[in-house]
């Protein structure tokens, strides 16, 4: 009989021990309910059997349950949102140089204002005031071009700085993945718990996913393989590197070049030379930054340079060198960075009447009221397109339209990506996050079970003491 009582007591005691451990896990869950990346933990329990007879409950490791497919979708959405966020911010900064629609400060507006000033000069060709108005309108146009060009270069340098920061963040996250992976593998090998370690590694993996578009292959022993785009493999013990730089409009990334610092991947073997992986880094914040630095922003600069060259040469073709490059240099064609240098011809600034008389030796009798030869040529030739060449106004509007469309599309894509990120993030949280109400319900169940097991122990103790008293009386 005493053996049976001992068995009952031991079973109830093991139940109490398991309940205490379970309450501790639930308490951790509730305490960390608001912590980003924390997943709900459960205590693994099993029956302690000997020869088919139950002798209580055996506690195991603390574990978690995460939907791998939802997690992969969440990380992929983080990559998309991160990339579109930086893209949208940079494009908006460039777009703002055109001012508010209708404010008259855009490239097309200032070009139109210059055309209007020539039209008004045509009616009063000898008016010094009107001549100065033309020069001022030309200066405003040049300043608008310069401002947009300088903003593009400034944003490109800002992007370069963000690339350096993103590479440092990438290395820090990669180091965390490496250290936690080693700990996870050791824990699995010793049959220990990996739940909290997996949470820590997942947080680092999400940072990696925000920085780049990556894929992960997790093995049963706890190890993990990281793969980028275009077949790029990223060993856990490798490191990325790049350099700071001040970029000019002419700075161009080329593999192996030095004009724009490449992003290098160094293996753990110092004898191996670093590999330029710039062209293989796609998606996420870093991928978007590279695209902006090496393609999008240089493309805007090239378009603005072409417009600047067309503007200057089309005026010169009519006998008026209204615009020059730096230090008054003649403009004969497009060159990299021209849009940041174009200015009103210093000679025209000094002698505003040249907007009427021309600058190339044309026989315009200075001061003769009503002479409009150069002015007529400018209005009929410079501002109008010919053949397959669109008008200057069309070219200016094309630049604005393309840049505005890019900005609007990035904003729309970002809004949609955030909505999807919220959807998959909520689904992942609902499946693996902490539901406080559910945890409190489990806590109440465990407390009831604790009371029941404690009552069993109390009852068996009372019975055991009664048996001892009976035995003492019979001796």
Topology, please?
Blueprint: H1 2-31, E1 41-50, E2 53-64, H2 68-95, H3 107-123, H4 128-189, H5 195-211, E3 215-218, E4 224-227, E5 233-234, E6 239-241, E7 264-266, E8 275-276, H6 284-316, E9 323-324, E10 343-344, H7 346-350, H8 354-357, H9 373-382, H10 392-432, H11 436-474
Antiparallel strand pairs: 1-2, 3-4, 4-5, 6-7, 7-8, 9-10
Helix pairs in contact: 1-11, 2-5, 2-6, 2-10, 3-4, 3-9, 3-10, 4-5, 4-6, 6-10
Structure description:
With 475 residues, the protein is mainly alpha-helical. The protein folds into two domains: 2-65 and 434-474; 72-423, no CATH class. The protein has eleven helices and ten strands. The strands form four sheets. It has a three-stranded antiparallel sheet with strand order 3-4-5, with no helix packed on it. Helix 2 (68-95) runs parallel beside helix 6, helix 2 runs antiparallel to helix 10 (392-432) and helix 4 (128-189) packs antiparallel against helix 5 (195-211). The mean pLDDT is 86.
Short descriptors:
475 residues; mainly alpha; 2 domains; 11 helices; elongated
**Average pLDDT reading:** 86
Helical amount: 55-70%
What would the principal axes of the Cα set say about the shape? elongated
Tell me how many strands there are: 10
Q: Biggest β-sheet: count, sense, barrel?
A: 3 strands, antiparallel
Q: Helix-strand pattern, N to C?
A: HEEHHHHEEEEEEHEEHHHHH
Radius of gyration: 37 Å
Instruction: State the secondary-structure class.
Output: mainly alpha
Helix segment tally:
11
Tell me the β content: 5-15%
- Oligomeric state of this protein: single chain
Number of domains: 2
Could you list the spans in which at least 5 consecutive residues all have pLDDT below 50? none
**Strand order, sheet with most strands:** 3-4-5
Q: End-to-end distance, in Å?
A: 18 Å
């Amino acid at each position: 009989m005493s053996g049976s009582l001992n068995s009952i007591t031991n079973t109830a005691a093991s139940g109490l021990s398991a309940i205490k451990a379970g309450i501790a896990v639930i308490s951790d869950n509730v305490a960390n309910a608001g912590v980003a990346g924390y997943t709900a933990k459960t205590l693994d329990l099993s029956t302690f059997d000997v020869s088919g007879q139950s002798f209580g409950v055996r506690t195991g490791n603390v574990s978690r349950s995460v939907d791998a497919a939802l997690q992969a979708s969440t990380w992929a959405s983080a990559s998309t949102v991160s990339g579109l966020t930086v893209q949208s911010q940079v494009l908006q900064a460039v777009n703002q140089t055109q001012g508010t629609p209708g404010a008259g400060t855009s490239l097309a507006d200032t070009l139109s204002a210059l055309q209007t000033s020539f039209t008004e000069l045509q009616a009063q060709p000898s008016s010094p005031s009107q001549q100065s108005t033309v020069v001022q309108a030309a200066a405003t146009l040049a300043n608008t071009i310069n401002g947009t060009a300088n903003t593009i270069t400034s944003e490109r340098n800002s992007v370069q700085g963000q690339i350096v920061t993103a590479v440092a963040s990438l290395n820090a996250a990669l180091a965390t993945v490496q250290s936690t992976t080693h700990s996870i593998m050791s824990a699995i090998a010793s049959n220990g718990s990996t739940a909290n370690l997996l949470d820590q590694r997942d947080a680092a993996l999400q940072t990696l996913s925000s920085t780049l578009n990556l894929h992960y292959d997790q093995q049963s022993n706890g190890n993990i393989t990281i793969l980028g785009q275009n077949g790029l493999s990223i060993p856990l013990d490798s490191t990325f590197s790049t350099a700071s730089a001040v970029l000019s409009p002419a700075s161009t990334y080329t593999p192996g070049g030095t004009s724009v610092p490449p992003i290098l991947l160094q293996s753990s073997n110092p004898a191996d030379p670093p590999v330029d992986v710039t062209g293989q880094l796609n998606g996420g914040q870093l991928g978007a930054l590279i695209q902006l630095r090496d393609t999008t922003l240089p493309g805007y600069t090239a378009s603005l340079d072409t417009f600047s060259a067309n503007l200057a040469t089309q005026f010169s073709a009519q006998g008026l060198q209204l615009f020059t490059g730096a230090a008054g240099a003649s403009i004969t064609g497009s060159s990299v960075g021209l849009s940041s240098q174009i200015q009103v011809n210093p000679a025209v600034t000094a002698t505003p009447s040249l907007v009427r008389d021309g600058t190339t030796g044309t026989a315009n009798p200075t001061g003769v009221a009503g002479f409009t030869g150069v002015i007529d040529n400018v209005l009929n030739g410079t501002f109008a397109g010919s053949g397959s060449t669109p008008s200057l106004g069309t070219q200016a509007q094309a630049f604005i339209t393309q840049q505005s469309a890019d900005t609007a599309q990035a904003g729309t894509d970002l809004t949609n990506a955030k909505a999807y990120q919220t959807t998959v993030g909520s689904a992942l949280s609902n499946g693996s996050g902490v539901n406080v109400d559910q945890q409190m319900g489990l806590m109440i169940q465990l407390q009831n079970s604790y009371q029941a097991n404690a009552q069993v122990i109390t009852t068996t103790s009372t019975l055991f003491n009664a048996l001892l008293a009976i035995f003492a009386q019979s001796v």
